[in-house]
Amino acid sequence: MARMPLDLPTPALPSAAGAPLRAYRHWQHGQNHARRARWPAAAAAFAQAAELHSDAAYAMDAAHALIQCGRADEAIRHARRLRELQPQALIGYTLEAKAWLAQGCGEEAVACLQARPAELPPDLPYLTALAFALQRCARHADALPVFLQALALKIDDAQLHFHLGTSFKQLAMKAEAAECVRTAIALGLGGSELAARGLLTFLERDACRWPEAQAELQRLREGVQALPAQRAVDTSPFTHAVLVGDPLEQLKVARHYALKLASLVPPLPRVRARDHGGRLRLGYLSADFHNHATCELLVQVLEQHDRRHVEVFALSAGPDDGTALRRRVVAAVEHFVELRGHSHAQIARRVRELRIDILVDLKGATQDTLLPVLAARPAPLQVGWLGFPGSSGAACIDYLIGDPVVTPLAHAAHFEEKIAQLPRCYQPNDARRERARPVSRSDCGVPDGALLLCAFHQPYKISPEVFDTWCALLREREDALLWLLRWSPQVEQRLRAEAQARGVDPQRLVFAPLLPLQQHLDRLACADLYLDAWPCNAHTTAGEALWVGVPVVTLIGQTFAQRVAASLLHALQLDELVCADLEAYRAQVLALAGDAARRASLKRHLAAQRDANPLFDGAAFARDLEALLQRMWQQALRGAPPQHLAAEGGA
Question: What's the Rg (C-alpha) of the chain?
């Protein structure tokens, strides 16, 4: 058994028959199972020993084995018994905290660890558990000094360096995060190395450290290409989805990741679709039912579902941020099911108990992924939508909802799932959000007479090629300003320096602060044009620009992530703004830059579309979505395997 560092003695062989001897023999059996990693059998034997005799070693081993086999709720009782028997042993606090963390309960883990007697000096397992618990509670500033304390005890611990990096990332300290992850890789992360390389690549791009990002991306891609098929490996699908333009390479990464996640949760007995005579029971699974881009897009669809035909469940594994958006979601659905703090296995069992017909995953391979829940196969039909711009790579997901632009049937080989096309854009929009209110450019910190080229992208989307193109446009149009978001002082400094290196006055880059949604929309409406990025387009922000009347010029590609803006523009009958190559992109921007009348005409067209186009009609979108889900369900009721579903009609 892999034992944790502690001072508890191994139980001695009792000198007389009776319960202590039987307990010792159970403990020996547990040891034999644990050495072979047969954790369920080990847990049963250790638990029997602990029930028969009050020995701290029995309680400790029972708690540890129960955590290992996914029975953390039972482990808590044994850990607490250990604390009673050995109040001066840190291991009891550490094990109980690990059990809480295994259930996703960070606050409980922190409270347990902070109950440590003050006279007990913290050891490495204790500090590690506390740092992880604080991370789980999103208390990253508090976690940093604890990680550093732990590293002072073991400076060569790769996992500690890696997780310290993730806290730096959450605090927007991207350069510091990158150095921590780089150190972790150098020390050795075993099977997690490719995932760490993916994170490091993303961090370097998000810090606009382009040479470092390019070097790391090359190493990442070489590592991925060397992986044999069907190997379960912790990879980084999101990094590939947004930084790599090869859809088949994206699919390979996603498949390795999905196989890895599938190994984490035992599958439930498979259930088949059946006609129960009631409404379709539709479960939306997410950790983002709060102030989040996915929720902003989805909320009106939830409000507009036809309850005569669909019974809607919001299955929430994320925090309640107390915002108006969160309250709208709760009010929009018939059943808001709070699952925060539940393990993936517990969530899967809850989905099964609720008898969900179609489980819709809104997360994909993003932070706080819930793909392990779907790997357990809790619902007869499982669908991916909206949260991730590409394939999950998971055989347990039957369909991916797209549209004829983002997921043309000719691209079927790019996806593990079957394609299910909505008749218009796959991305919903909230028509209940406010229209942009008039504000002056001076209020936004930009001059009235400038040609304002807006590119409100997250920094990772700005590659050297993208920035080269934008700077070339600025050199062509001396009256133009490039309007960017101020994500961090470091990114601002780097982009100004890169502009100067390309012959552009750094002061022609104007950085806007991050604002709440309504103020953001008011300000965005001041732009003349929105410049898209590639290989990952603007998604939510492209929809926002079009909503407030700002034309978007995009460059379409082969991947899902580089086809989203094209889909939005197609839905609004503006295919002329979709460019097939870089030269066409530059020509289109320059043509519009020199034609104020055409820009005004496009703004009028977009203003009219707000009231007339189904892209901005939540009720019509909900009808289209329901019709598509019913087509999937009828296919399942016939006992037929999933098949590609081409777009039909439209509400």
Answer: 27
Residue 8 pLDDT grade (very low, low, confident, very high; cuts 50, 70, 90)? low
Are the C-beta atoms of 418 and 394 separated by less than 8 Å? Answer: no
Residue 647's nearest CA partner among 407, 477, 414, 413 is: 407
CA distances from 552 to 460, 461, 546, 586 (A): 19, 16, 7, 13
Helix (H) / strand (E) element for 100: namely: helix 90-102
Structure confidence by residue, pLDDT tens digits, 127-182: 999 999 999 999 999 999 999 999 999 999 999 999 999 999 999 898 899 999 99
Reported as type and span, the H/E element at residue 419 is: strand 418-421
CA 96 to each of CA 88, 92, 117, 481, 630: distance values in angstroms, whole numbers, following the listed order: 15, 6, 15, 57, 46
- For residues 556 and 521, state if they share a domain: yes
pLDDT-wise least confident of 26-40, 364-378, 521-535: 26-40
Query: What confidence tens digit (pLDDT) does each residue in 579-620 have?
Result: 999 999 999 999 999 999 999 999 999 999 998 998 999 889
User: Which tens digit of pLDDT belongs to each residue from 404-436?
Assistant: 999 999 999 999 999 999 999 999 999 888 889
Distance (Å, rounded) from C-alpha 310 to C-alpha 537?
33
286 and 374 co-located in one domain: yes
Are residues 555 and 586 both part of a single domain? yes
Look at residues 57, 90, 120 and tell me which one is the last residue of a structural domain: 120
Of the three residues 120, 143, 162, the one that is the final residue of a domain is: 120
* pTM higher than the cut 0.85: yes
Structure tokens given for 584 = 């066409």
How many helices and strands in the chain, by DSSP H and E? 26, 13
| 167, 203 contact by CB (below 8 A) | no
Provide the residue range defining the domain that includes 365. Answer: 266-431+617-651
| Whole-number Å distance between alpha carbons of 587 and 566 | 17
CATH of residue 36: 1.25.40.10
Count of domains forming the chain: 3
Domain annotation covers residue 239: no
